[in-house]
Design a protein that fits this description.
This protein has 345 residues and is an alpha+beta fold. The protein is 26% helix and 31% strand. It has two domains: 230 residues, Rossmann fold (3-Layer(aba) Sandwich); 99 residues, Nucleic acid-binding proteins (OB fold (Dihydrolipoamide Acetyltransferase, E2P)). Strands 6-7-8-3-9-10 form a six-stranded mixed β-sheet, with helices on both faces. Strands 13-17-14-15-16 form a five-stranded antiparallel β-sheet, with no helix packed on it. It has a four-stranded antiparallel β-sheet with strand order 2-1-4-5, with helices on one face.
Amino acid sequence: MAKVTVKDIRKTFGETTKVLEGISFEANDGEFVSLLGPSGCGKTTLLRIIAGLEYADSGEIHIGDKEVSKTPPKDRDIAMVFQNYALYPHLLVSENIGMGLKLRKYPEAEIKTRTDDAARMLDLQPLLDRKPAALSGGQRQRVALARALVRRPKVTLLDEPLSNLDAVLRERTRGELKLLFRKINGTAIYVTHDQVEAMTLSDKIVVLNKGRIQQVGTPHEIYHEPQNTFVAKFLGAPPMNIIPAPQILEAGFSPEVPGEAKDRLLGVRPEDLNISVDSSDGAIAFDVTLREATGAQTVLTIKAGALELRANLSGDWPINGLKAFVSLPADKLCWFDASTKEACS
C-alpha cells in the first residue's frame, strides 16, 4: 500500500470551463478517503486524473515516493472499481477475478491462490463457477472488488461503486466494504455524492464543490465543524439550519454572537435543538407546521414569526402537539460570516 499526494491539480475543458482549481490533499498509507460532492463538482475527473485516465493541466500526483503525473495507468500500480462493474460476461467469476493477473502473465498457480484468497475474503467461493449473468447486483459488485484487490495494488480507486444497488443491498455492501478495507489495511480513494456513504466509510473526507475543495477532515470534523455554509448544508438530513443572527435575536433567543449580529449567520443542526412539548425557562414557543415521522425519528418544521427551523427528534412527537418550546444548545452552535459564508474563528 502507499500514500497518495495530490498537489495543486488544475483541469480545464475547452478554453474556459474550469473543472478543477488548485486541488491538494493527501491519502495516507492505509487510509480510506472519500471525495464527496454534488454531481458536476469534479470528483470523478479528479479520480480519473489520479488513475491516469485523464491528465491534469498542471499539478502533481505522487503515489508512494514516485511522481506519476505523466505515468501511464498500467505503471501506477492502482486498481479501479467502476460504477457499472465492467465484468466480462462470457467468463466465469473465477476467470473475471484473475484476468488482470493473467494479462500480466502471472503463473497459473499464483493466479489460483490469489483468486481463492480474494473470493474467500469477499464470500464468493460458491459463485466461482458462475457467469456474471447468474449473479445479483451485489454479487457482481463484489466480483469487481475482488478483481481489483487480487492484484494487491498500492491504491484502490472506487467510482460510486454502490450507486446501482437498491437501498437495502447498498447498506449491507457498504458495511462489507468497510470491514474489507479495514482487514487489508488498503489505501482507497472513493468517489460518492452520498453523504451517508462518505460518513460511514471514511477516515477522511474531501468535500468538493464547483471544482474547489471546501473542506478536508474527519467525518466528525466535517459534520460538526463545517468550514463554510456549503459544507454545513450539504451534510445532514435535514441539513443544518442557517439563520441570520438578527432573525434569531428578534425571535427572542439570546446567544452570544461573535462580532456584530448583522455580519453573522447562526448554524445549528436539527438534532441539536433542545425541543419540548412543555414550556421552560428561556425556551421560545414555536408552532409545529409539519410533522414527518420516519419510525425511529420525527422531523418537525417549526415556525415563530418569520423564523422557521427544522428539528430532528429521536422517537415520536405527539400528533396533537401544536406547540414546541425550543432553546439553543450553546455548545453546539456554528457561526459564519454573512458575506463570505466562511466559519468564524
